[in-house]
């Protein structure tokens, strides 16, 4: 997985797309980083928020991130928001916040019980360590 915005930009230009699954502590809790919003803004690309909800799952409630494991043969529903594009003269922070709000709203609609916990661990941030 790319480590910085320049490498991510190169990957998108070469492949034409990028799937981003937040993997680090800072990005969990449905907080969208400034680096992601900046990258999308630079490339004038679309952001497509997605929430996955297993019909049957184990939730590791004593972990800091409430890790979820779909049970074998369970159905996993995917819910997409409308694509988000950066608006003309929109600041990166405004775009980042719009992505985050859309993602949180999507989860609230389709997985309300878990959305409560996501909001508890989410904390505002403006910088991602190691990214421009």
Structure, explained:
With 132 residues, the protein is of the alpha+beta class. It has one domain. Helices cover 38% and strands 12% of the residues. It has 4 helices and 4 strands. The strands form 2 sheets. It has a two-stranded antiparallel ribbon with strand order 1-4. The longest helix has 19 residues.
Mean pLDDT rating? 75
Major sheet attributes = 2 strands, antiparallel
Shape by Cα distribution: elongated
Beta-strand share of residues: 5-15%
Specify Rg, calculated over alpha carbons.
15 Å
Number of domains: 1
Tell me how many strands there are. 4
Features of the shown structure:
single chain, 132 residues, alpha+beta, two-stranded antiparallel sheet, two-stranded antiparallel ribbon, elongated
Summarize the structure.
β2 and β3 (68-70) form a beta hairpin. The strands form 2 sheets. Strands 1-4 form a two-stranded antiparallel ribbon. A two-stranded antiparallel ribbon has the order 2-3.
Write the layout of secondary structure elements.
Layout (H helix, E strand, L loop, with lengths): L4 H11 L18 H10 L6 E5 L2 E3 L8 E3 L5 E5 L11 H19 L1 H10 L11
Antiparallel strand pairs: 1-4, 2-3
Helix pairs in contact: 2-3, 3-4
């Amino acid at each position: 997985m790319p480590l910085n915005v320049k490498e991510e930009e190169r990957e998108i230009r070469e492949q034409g797309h990028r799937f981003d699954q937040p993997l680090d502590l800072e990005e969990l809790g449905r907080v969208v980083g400034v680096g992601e919003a900046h990258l999308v803004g630079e490339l004038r690309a679309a952001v497509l928020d997605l929430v996955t909800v297993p019909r049957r799952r184990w939730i590791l409630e004593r972990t800091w991130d409430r890790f979820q494991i779909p049970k074998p043969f369970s159905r996993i529903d995917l819910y997409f928001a409308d694509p988000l594009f950066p608006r003309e003269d929109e600041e990166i922070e405004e775009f980042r916040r719009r992505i985050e709000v859309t993602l949180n709203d999507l989860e609230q609609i389709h997985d309300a019980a878990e959305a409560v916990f996501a909001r508890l661990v989410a904390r505002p941030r403006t910088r991602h360590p190691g990214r421009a």
